[in-house]
Each structure stands twice: as C-alpha cells, then as structure tokens.
C-alpha cells in the first residue's frame, strides 16, 4: 500500500469551514484505480492543523491519479474558492510506502 499525507494550517476559526468542505467533497478520488481510503485528520492540540490522508494500493496508482484530469479539475476548483486565504493554502505533502502492517 501507499499513503500520502497533505498537511496544512488554517486559522482556527476557519477549521470547521474547511472540515465542512471535505465532508462534502466531490469523491472523485474514490473511483480512481487503486484507491483504498480517504481521511481528513485534525490535530488534537492545534485544531487549525488539518491533514488529508489518501491511501492507494501502490505508488503507480497514486501517480496515475495525480496526473489525471479529475485531480486537475478538483485542484482548479480549490484555486477559485471565494475565501482567498483558504484558496492560497499550500500543503506539505509526504508520501510513504507501507512496509509493515
């Protein structure tokens, strides 16, 4: 398996708004080849720190997703988000191969 974490910080007052956006996400990734699961994580001590976790069967499937049209479409929509502070957020992305379970 292969997992990707995208961590970003938002103003704590906007954390619930961002959580709502993800709760109503398009779910396009759910039908991507090799997709396993999606999580939105909130830091217990710093509520403005949010992490998106994607799990794929393997790195090849993940790369196919990020190079595809649905991925581009989703991220273009983010750039057009009315709240420019949220639209400008750039996550720190970390990628991992699962080596034990």
UniProtKB/TrEMBL annotation:
Pfam families: ABM. Gene3D superfamilies: 3.30.70.100. The keyword Ribonucleoprotein does not apply. InterPro entries: ABM_dom (IPR007138), Dimeric_a/b-barrel (IPR011008), Heme-degrading_MO (IPR050404). The keyword Oxidoreductase applies. Keywords: Monooxygenase, Oxidoreductase. It comes from the Bacteria. This is Antibiotic biosynthesis monooxygenase. Residues 2-90 form the ABM domain. One of its GO terms (molecular function) is monooxygenase activity. It comes from Cytobacillus horneckiae. PROSITE patterns: ABM.
């Amino acid at each position: 398996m292969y997992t990707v974490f995208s961590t970003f910080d938002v103003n704590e007052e906007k954390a619930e708004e961002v959580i709502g956006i993800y709760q109503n996400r398009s779910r396009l990734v759910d039908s991507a080849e090799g997709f396993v699961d999606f999580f939105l994580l909130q830091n217990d001590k710093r509520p403005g720190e949010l992490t998106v976790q994607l799990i794929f069967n393997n790195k090849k499937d993940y790369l196919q997703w990020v190079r595809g049209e649905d991925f581009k479409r989703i991220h273009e929509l983010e750039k057009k988000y009315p709240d420019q502070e949220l639209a400008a957020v750039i996550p720190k992305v970390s990628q991992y191969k699962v080596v034990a379970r």
